[in-house]
Structure prediction request, 183 residues.
Amino acid sequence: MKTWQVLILGILIGLAAAAAILIIASEPRGEAIQLVPAVTPTEIVIYISGGVAHPGVYHLSPGSRIEQAVTAAGGLATDADASRADLARILTDGDQVYIPSIGEIVNSSVVVGNSLDVTSIDINSATVEELESLPGIGTVKAQSIITYRETHGEFTSLDDLLNVPGIGASLLEQIKPYLFITP
Prediction:
């Protein structure tokens, strides 16, 4: 073998050895996959109103039932109709619970979940609590509706709600399915 061939062969062997050392010594690419247990919520947040002592937002343990929500809200009000509420129902995060009063005309005994089950509330006789059970209506807007009704008289059309401060067209469309006017 000629000298230049030995030299080239030596260089090639040296490069191959250097490449092997670099490959073995280098850290692996990417990151190791880590298996993490599923996140279990430590609490759920619900809103309860109607026939309870202290309506409001409450933080409860996952798996809590409406009964625990009522207890957290100070118990049932004296005029609450507990027979129309499913106190054993398990709550989920974001639920809204409405406990009706005795004799209250609400087509659903309890409103639970992100979409309300209430099918009809008479806008001309609704209480603050009933109005608060509507999507997008809090205490301030509910009181504004009642104040407008007391100042201007009964509503003759659901579109009259557009005259109430804080009620716009999109909110009206959202609550219209839950409202009616006594003839």
